[in-house]
Amino acid sequence: MLRPDGDHRNALRNFGALVFARKLRERARIAVINGHPDPRPERFCAALAGAYAQGARSAGLEVRELVTGAGDISPESAFQALDWANHFVVVFPMWLDRPPAPLQAFFAGWARHVVEGGYIEPPARTARLVVTMGMPAFAHRRQSEAISLPGIYRADISYIGSVESASPKQRAAHLADAWRTGARTA
Length: 186
What we know:
- The chain has helices spanning 8-26, 44-58, 75-84, 101-116, 138-141, 168-184, and strands spanning 29-34, 62-67, 87-93, 125-132, 152-160.
- By secondary structure, the protein is an alpha/beta fold.
- It has a single domain, classed as Flavodoxin domain (Rossmann fold, 3-Layer(aba) Sandwich).
- It has a five-stranded parallel β-sheet, with helices on both faces.
- Helix 2 runs parallel beside helix 6 and helix 3 (75-84) crosses helix 4.
- The longest helix is centred in the first third of the chain and has 19 residues, at 8-26.
- It is globular and about 50 Å long.
- The N and C termini lie far apart (34 Å).
């Protein structure tokens, strides 16, 4: 029964996310996206994205990796990888309480690409957002609803704070957690 206050949309979206998560386990195709504007491999976002991808591959899942900050990637090939995937993992730094503008523009371009392809809106994908930041993570955990990217309707969000001051042991623990999370996606 539809609710007069419009909450039926949220209930349907949550139910759809559960059904989609079940299908994801059956045939997961994962696009791991390093959303840091600086594509250098020594960036912690690159290490986290790589660890997640390795973990998912170790579990037998199909994975494609994208780096949105790399100038040599063509939009067509990037959009094909997003069209192929049924689950996104997006790793990015928090800049001024938002994802970096190039990452937002990348997903907005993909949403336009999908709409031009005949969809009314991008097909729902499940996603995991891994957000790094210089400040302690607890400050942003309450604002999880405020982080959004076009075309992603349901996302689990992980925050990793104080990355500049993290010890090598703490960084290794974050990388191990990213690997385990990737392996558990199956």
